[in-house]
Amino acid sequence: MKPIIMTKKNIVLLFSILQLSIAFAQQPIVYTKAGYLEVPDAGRNVFDFNIGWRFIKADVTGAQSETFDDSSWSLVNCPHGLELVGSEASGGVNYQGPAWYRKHFTPSDSLKRKQLKLHFEGVMGKCKVWVNGQLAGEHYGGYLPFSVDLSKGLKYGKENVIAVWADNSDDPDFPPGKPQSTLDFSYFGGIYRDVWLVSTNDIFVTNANDENIVAGGGLLVRYENISEKSADVLCRVHIRNNNSKSQDLKVKVLLKDKSGKTVSVKSQDVSIGGNDDKSLSSRLKVASPLLWSPWSPSLYRLELIIENDRGDVVDGVAQHIGIRKLEMRGKDGFWLNNKPYPGKLMGVNRHQDFAYVGNALPNNGQWRDAVLLKNAGTEIIRAAHYPVDPSFMEACDALGIFYIVATPGWQFWNDKPIFEQRVYKDVRNMVRRDRNHPCVIMWEPILNETWYPDRFAKNVHDIVHEELPGNGVFTACDQQAKGQEHFDVVYSNPHKVAFFHNNFPNTEANSKRIQIDYESEARCVFTREFGDCPDDWSAHNSPSRIARNWGEHGQLVQLKHYENPDFVYPSWEALHKAPKQHIGGALWHSFDHQRGYHPDPFYGGITDVFRQTKYSYQLFESQRSKDNPMIFIAHEMTPMSEPDVTVLTNCDEVRLIVYETDTLYAKPNKEHMKMPHPVIRFKDVYDFMDMKELYGHEQANKASLVAEGLIDGKVVVRHKRMPSKRAEKIVLTLQDQGTPLVANGSDIAVVVASITDKDGIVKRLSNADMRFEIEGEGELIGNVENGGNPRRVEWGNAPILVRSSITPGKITIRAFLTKEGVNCPASGVLEIESIASSNAFVFDEVSESSYGYKGSSEIKTQSLSDQEKKIKELEKELIQLRLKEVERQQDTFQGK
Question: What confidence score (pLDDT) does residue 820 get?
Fold first, then answer.
């Protein structure tokens, strides 16, 4: 069926064109919509409400009015982050203040007499929503969903207007509460997650976040009696009857495997009175269950079907679930599915921001992030420091990555009762939203690195267990924090705090001398943030904080620091030396990200903000099981490259062939090191003058380093390095992690333009400026103002972002040097093709540009007056005083 696009001021439904293809990757990934997967022909319809919002980045009087003239505003699509920022957007350069969104649409008559809710996955800060000029709802906090009821507010046969006021200004009355100018991340803003229009009949399964029911509302799933032979799946479902008459219903619960086969089913009859609700419980027996784990993330589809007394289906919802048993056994460590976990749980922290778009990363972008981290061998991710987009949780479920869910908060407490009550509400709502995800291993309900009252710690621990009763539920808290004795797992580094302020040589004796006292701790221990090593909390210089474009030497310094530094410090090696009670750790941080309180972005990621990898990424990758062998030479063969050649591999042995002449062998130092696959370094192998000599004797083809990985004496993987020669061409590469661009008007993907020699080897020592052009069903995200186009080449690469239109088709990207000459590298071209979305859309207007840069909202620059400059200077002095307190608080929590 072709997409159906009705004329303006009518509902628009775009149905998927699922092209026949053997490769699943050519079909769009199916995500939940407003909390549930869709069940066909079940009386429930969920429409994509992201397309065609009028937007202005300002406070405007009267914009909530139905008749307000917004024709001069930009036309944008959600997810939307207020503005495009640069790849270096720290220090508070992002906009803070009110903004308005208005959406015009004419609802279909088929929605009459339906229950209608507008579901927002996330709007930053505080917001208010009006329907045709009438206030329909308001919300505080930018990281959790909320809904507004449209059932009685719409007009049929004419245009309707939804108006949203969103304000990301500093506000201490709701979490996180901390001013962005003293915050280690950036709030950004806008309607930065999906918006869904949910249509149901009068009888429907509720959404847990819309109901104030402890351990209830929506669908709650728990597990008992889990073994490889059988398992019990316990389901509790909450149903509302908004009809005035009592209804006799049949509720079916079906559990299906990945092939669609029903492996267990339960059915029960129930009567629900008029304008009443009821919760039902079911127990499903599953024989020979496929248990969920990181190496086998088996998912089942749990469907709930409601039939009336005539046998008609009146509602149906589904979720993916994973049957698994989690146990924290203290001294015996972490157990999964009745077996001790093999090795340490190693992973990363993750902020949600991305280059240019800030927090407004669409679902496929979230998925690509998860794939990238899974490919690096990541087994666990800690939220930093708020609930993430639901699609990222779903990716962790499907890919097999454990997740630690955190409530919004960072180094801030407000004694006002309203702040504390809103934290409790956030904790309840994050549990209600994420409780059925098999990836969830721990809950972090405390406010990160915050001095809060003793009572608060116990309260939030108790709230998690109230909302999620039963076994396998674990709260986590810093070992030195107030009220830590109430929590199920404690956060700690493997060393006492003395390591942070002293340069102890990394010897076995020193490591044991300052090891924490595991004997007096009965609980499992996890390191929430390892690796970061700032000189102080003002300058922030660190061997971990290395920008990718600083090149080879800097990246090797970071790699060494994360692997096993020469001084006692939490690292891959240090964590693996810890007893099994210490179950693992999460690196700070996965990706470079922007910050409010410092002029520099955080450069300690294993990738940059575009997800271009650094050598530390391959360090993580090399710690995977050798069932998936890899080898990587961390050396570029430039005139400034190190004499030592660093090789990252998970193989038993490495054979290094130098200049097609010398053959060297080395094995990982497993006798003295505990990490799975220690780094191999060949000493004094490379000398630029050796290459120069080969060139002089017309043997340039021999100038190479070849690393071969051997397992059981056989070569299983190979990596070859050659120096880049004369820059000849521009090569464009799509970084989509195997997930194609979807034509939904919001999806974005990274395209990297590289300056290479004739053989395609990247010319790392290039500093040209590059410009881009695009044709077809997409647009470039970036412009002169944010440095996106033209863009400076850094370490041989110039990344750009491409956004899809709503029409599937070809997209052609071209890259040129800004100044071209007869001896300049040839321009590059890349053709990609977006695929059709499976969503049904509702909109009257179509945005040509996701951030309005083709319209009237282009960034305008203006000089500051002397008075404005003085105010800025005074503000900066005040912030510096506040940052002293931040430094003191970070120093208290660091290393403990």
Answer: 87
Parts of the chain belonging to CATH 2.60.40.10: 219-321, 729-836
Residue 15, pLDDT > 70, answer no
Concatenating the DSSP letter of every residue in 28-51 gives PPP--BTTBEE-TTSS-EEEE--S
Cis-peptide into 79, omega within 30 deg? yes
The DSSP element (H or E) to which 530 belongs, if any, is strand 524-530
User: How many whole angstroms separate alpha carbon 666 and alpha carbon 660?
Assistant: 17
Helix (H) / strand (E) containing 695: helix 688-696
Q: What is the pLDDT of residues 740-793, one digit of tens each?
A: 999 999 999 999 999 999 999 999 999 999 999 999 999 999 999 999 999 999
Using CA atoms, how far apart are residues 508 and 664, in angstroms rounded to an integer? 29
Instruction: Please write down the long-range contacts of 498-503, taking CB distance under 8 Å and 24 or more positions apart.
Output: 499/568, 499/569, 499/570, 499/895, 500/894, 500/895, 501/895, 503/567
According to CATH, what is the number of the domain 729-836?
A: 2.60.40.10
Strand, coil or helix: what is 325? coil
Residue 792 neighbours by CB distance under 10 Å: 14
pLDDT at 167: 98
Q: Which of 471, 196, 538, 129 is nearest to 326 (CA)?
A: 471
Please count the residues of the chain. 896
- Terminal CA-CA length for the chain: 59
Cα–Cα dist 704/484, whole Å: 55
CATH 2.60.120.260 in the chain is located at: 31-200
Structure tokens at 669: 């130092």
Encoding tokens for residue 517?
A: 């006292």
Residue in the block written with tokens 């995977």: 624
CA pair distance 276, 283, nearest whole angstrom: 24
Fold for 31-200, please state it.
Jelly Rolls (2.60.120)
